[in-house]
Structures are given as C-alpha cells and as structure tokens.
C-alpha cells in the first residue's frame, strides 16, 4: 500500500477511535492515559539514545551505584528514575480529571501540581547525582564534571517530557470538559497540517530549512500551514451549508481562520521539535506502532504543541463562546 494511503487510513482510524473514546468521561481518561504512556515510552527511548552515547562513563557509574544501593537498602533507585516521567504525567492527568467537575477554573489547580512535579523530578535527580558522587572527593575530577553535565542534561529532558505529555494532555482534559466538540476540530486540523506538509514537501520542496533538518523544507512547512488554514475554512463552509453534526456553526469565520493559522504554525513547530530529538538520538521514527506514521510520539508531537493554543483561544479570545453554547443548548 502506498505510504500516503497508509497515513490517511491510520489517521481516519485514530480519529474514529478518539471520537468513540470521547463519548464518555471514563473511556476518555483511559484512552488519554494509554496514548500518553505509549508516547512517553517512546520519548524515554529517544532520551536514552541521546544521553547514553554522549556520556557513556556516567552510565556505567550509575549502574554500579544503583546496584550497590539495591543490595544495601533493597530499593531499586534505577527503576524509580527510569519511570519518573510516567509517574509524574500519570498522576497529573488523573488529578486534573478528578478536579474537573469540582472546580470552575481547573488551570488554577493544574499549574501548582505541574510545578510540584518539576520540583520532585529536580530533587530526585540531584539526590541521584549526590549518591553517585559519594566516592568522588576531588570536584576537579573528570567524573564529577561528567556527572554534573549528565544530571543537568537529564533534568532538561525530563522537564521537556513532563511538559509535553503531562501538561499538554491535561490541557486536552480541560478542553474535553469545557468544549468537547472542539477537540475533534483541533485534531482534524493537526492531522491535515501533517498531511499537507508531507504532500507539499514531497512535491514542491526545494529549500531545506537547514542542514540539520535534511528532509524538512520551507515549502513543506508553508504548505502544511496553508493546508491547515484551508481546512479550517472548509470546516466553516461545511458547518454553515452542509451539516452541523460534526463542526459547530456557532464558530465564526474568524474563529476557523485563527484556529487554522494557530494550529498550523504550532503543529509545524511540534514536528520540528520531535525531529530535532530524533536526529540527536540517531533514529528515524520514535516507534513502529502506527503504519505510515511511525510511533505514537511521531503522531502526537504536533497535537501536543497545539494544546495550549486550543485551550487559551477559547478561554481568552472567544469570550462569547459560552453564551453561544448556552443558546445552542
């Protein structure tokens, strides 16, 4: 099967699965947790491929210290560190779902919880570093310098992971609670941006962004944004003249135009960020779970970046949306 057809078929299956999963609160949180943890697993493999070749001596030092700790204290510190992102993102998403029906402004709850997750990760990594540095008396030792570099490197990667997966999935949880139908619009726009960038880049791509992104072109990025805007306008036409079942007609022409432009730009930035991480790790795809796309992280990289814009657009710049929704109901 042609790669384009595989991508389109997989996208339709994903949208159908998401549409069914969003019908009920319980199924939505289960679906979100599954997708999130699969994406985190692939992100962890990418992060490991970045750190291990860069600082191999620290990896060996870590293993020896962790094995010693496990024998003496009976605690598998390596296991806790390895799955820290899963733990932090999982409890963030579960907590925000719990507070959604109890608090009118869940963002007030989300940000302190997110900061706590970052602080816990920072403390955990620093504790791990000091445990490994116990036998290093000379702070001018090469091992100490490598240890500090590796720790700061891993903290940055874990903060990026918690922000991308934990915070952005919580944004979608809030969006689902307040404006559920708009999630489907956002996901459609993101997927169309990805397909537009692929089509325009493969057919008209002549100008590479730079030497690092050797298969990303300026024409592909601009084409993806154009395709997203065009699909936003088509959604408005369909909502007004064809059917109101999928796309809401109470959103204005300007709303769909702004959504297409904002989601298109952020989707491209999300794809470039994930491509940067994959190039640093030396891998082509984050996984092989989705035919034509690669892994879960390959598919949701743009979705994650678009989450803050989708939520804040309807929170800040569409003040009349709640009145329109009440009028429709």
Structural features, described:
By secondary structure, the protein is an all-alpha fold. Helices cover 80% and strands 0% of the residues. It contains 12 helices and no strands. It has helices at residues 3-21, 25-54, 56-73, 77-82, 84-100, 106-132, 142-178, 180-204, 218-241, 253-281, 296-317, 321-328. The longest helix is centred in the middle third of the chain and has 37 residues, at 142-178. It is found in: Cell membrane. It comes from Euplotes crassus.
Provide the succession of SSEs.
HHHHHHHHHHHH
Oligomer: single chain
**Overall SS class:** mainly alpha
Parts with pLDDT < 50 across at least 5 consecutive residues: none
The pLDDT mean sits at 77
Transmembrane segments: 108-127, 147-175, 181-201, 213-233, 253-273
Organism: Euplotes crassus
GO molecular function: phosphatidate cytidylyltransferase activity
Membrane topology: Multi-pass membrane protein
Any chance you could write out the topology, listing elements then pairs?
Blueprint: H1 3-21, H2 25-54, H3 56-73, H4 77-82, H5 84-100, H6 106-132, H7 142-178, H8 180-204, H9 218-241, H10 253-281, H11 296-317, H12 321-328
Helix pairs in contact: 1-8, 2-5, 2-7, 2-10, 5-6, 5-7, 6-7, 7-8, 7-11, 8-9, 8-10, 8-11, 9-10, 10-11
Protein name: Phosphatidate cytidylyltransferase
InterPro entries: PC_trans
Subcellular location: Cell membrane
């Amino acid at each position: 099967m042609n790669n384009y057809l595989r991508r389109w078929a997989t996208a339709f299956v994903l949208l159908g699965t998401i549409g069914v999963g969003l019908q009920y609160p319980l199924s939505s949180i289960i679906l979100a947790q599954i997708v999130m943890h699969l994406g985190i697993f692939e992100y962890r493999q990418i992060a490991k491929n970045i750190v291990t070749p860069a600082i191999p001596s620290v990896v060996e030092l870590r293993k020896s210290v962790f094995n010693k700790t496990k024998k003496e204290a009976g605690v598998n510190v390596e296991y806790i560190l390895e799955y820290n992102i899963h733990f932090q993102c999982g409890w963030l998403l579960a907590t925000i779902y719990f507070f959604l029906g109890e608090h009118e402004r869940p963002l007030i709850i989300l940000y302190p919880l997110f900061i706590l997750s970052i602080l816990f990760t920072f403390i955990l990594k620093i504790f791990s570093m000091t445990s490994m540095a116990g036998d290093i008396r000379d702070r001018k030792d090469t091992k100490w310098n490598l240890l500090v570099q590796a720790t700061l490197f891993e903290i940055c990667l874990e903060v990026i992971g918690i922000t991308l997966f934990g915070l952005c999935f919580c944004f979608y949880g809030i969006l689902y609670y307040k404006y559920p139908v708009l999630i489907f619009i956002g996901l459609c726009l993101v997927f169309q941006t990805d397909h537009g960038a692929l089509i325009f880049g493969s057919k008209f791509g002549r100008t590479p962004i730079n030497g690092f992104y050797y298969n990303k072109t300026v024409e592909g990025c601009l084409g993806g944004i154009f395709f997203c805007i065009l699909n936003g306008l088509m959604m408005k036409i369909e909502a007004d003249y064809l059917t109101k079942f999928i796309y809401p007609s109470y959103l204005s022409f300007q709303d769909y135009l702004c959504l297409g432009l904002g989601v298109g730009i952020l989707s491209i930035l999300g794809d470039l960020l994930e491509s940067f991480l994959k190039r640093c790790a030396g891998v082509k795809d984050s996984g092989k779970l989705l035919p034509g796309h690669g892994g879960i992280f390959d598919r949701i990289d743009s979705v994650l970046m678009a989450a803050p814009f989708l939520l804040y657009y309807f929170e800040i710049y569409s003040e009349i949306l709640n009145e329109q929704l009440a009028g429709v109901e």
